[in-house]
Amino acid sequence: MRIAAITAFCDFPYHFRQEPEKEEYLPHILIVDDDEIIAELACQLLMDAGYACGWVGDGEKALELLRWRRPDLLLLDQDMPGLSGSQVLRSLRSSAENYDLPVIMFTGISGVEDENQAYFNGAQAYVRKPFEPGALLREVEEILRPRSDKPRHRELTEHLEFAAGRWRDSPSNRAVS
Asked: To which H or E segment does residue 103 belong?
């Protein structure tokens, strides 16, 4: 079952995402959770709701996969062996490729301080486990809906060049390289 979930996420090469038709495009969601049962339940729920979804069991694998393909949303467990969810989130926020990737912290840790820390690190939402299926779907939809009409992601260097008005210059004259 896990292989099928990862395959559903990885089947489409990155270049497939160029200007897809809105009716045909399924947002891709990556779940990072060391609890296989929870990850599989959430993955199945999201696939049944019409999302392409897959999961990995630790932070290192998530960062490796993110170098290959960028999902539309990341559900990230806080407490995992190896890299914690906070460490993965901080790595994403300091990355030129994934600085703006939407993240929902998806965790069994229920303290207010942990929730505040997740928001401080750059999470857009916080869902506690065990999760209520309707609540998880509402959070996912709330984060993905506003992004569906926005332009595609640009790497940070491209965004800075555009903001500085240097994007029209030849590559040798650009401020950021």
From this structure: strand 103-107
